[in-house]
Amino acid sequence: MTQPIRVLIVDDEPLARARLKELLSEESDMAVIGECRDGNEAIDAIGRQRPDLVLLDVQMPEPDGFGVLRAVSREYQPAVIFVTAHRDFAVQAFEANALDYLLKPFDQERFRLSLSRVRERRRTGATELDAELVERLESLSSRLTPASERYATRLVAKVGWRMRFLRVEDIDYLEAEGNYVCVHQGKQSFLTRETMNAVEEKLDPRDFVRIHRSLIVRLDRVEEVEPLAPGEMVLTLRDGTKLTSGRSYRARLQRALDLPS
Question: Membrane-crossing residues (predicted)?
C-alpha cells in the first residue's frame, strides 16, 4: 500500500490553517503531520519531521516563507506550495510542477490542482525546487513589502535542543565560524547555522555593515576607527573589542560610517 503524503501546514492565521486542514481531510492520500504559526516553527518542524509537502504562507512573522526555504537543508527539499493573499503574485502565473502557489481565497478545485502537481512530482521522483520561480517570487515579495518590514528583528540560534531568539538590536558583531555564524552579544556568543551571505541579507544595512568576508558589525557599536596601510582599518567597539576590516570592504565601510575617502 502506498504511504500517504505527509503534509506540514505553515500559516500565521488560525482560520487559514483550519481551512487547509479541512481540505486535506478529504484527500485520502494526504496526512497532516503538523501545523506551524511562523517561520521559526516551520524551520524546526521541517528539520525534525521531514514532511513530503509543505503548504507555506509567503508573508509571516520572521522569517517569511522565503526565509524558511533558505534555511532548509539542500540535502532535503520537500515539495512546496506557496499560499498568499497578495493578488500581485498571480501575475507570475507559474506552471511548474515542482512548485505551485495558492491565492487566498482559493476553492477546492484550485487546491486539488495543486495537489495533483505534488502527486506528479512524487510519481516522477522530482526532488529539486524550481529555483527560478523562487527567485521571481522573492523579488516580487520585496517590492510588495515595505522596507521597514524586510529585515529581521531577531535571529535564531540553537542551544542544545533549544532554540534561542537573539534580538538584532542587542548584537555587537557577527563572525563566520566554519559552517556557522557566531553572533556576539556583549560577553555572550551564539552559533546560528547560516552563511554570512544569508545573515547579511536579513540585516538592515542602515544598522549593519560587512567589513570583512567573515565579519559584520553593528554601526552604533563602533567607537573608534584607525586606518591602516594598505586599505585596512581597525574598528574599536564600545566594549573594547578590536576588529580589522578587509581591503575590499574599505569603500562600503567609509560610506556606512560617513568617513572621508
Answer: none
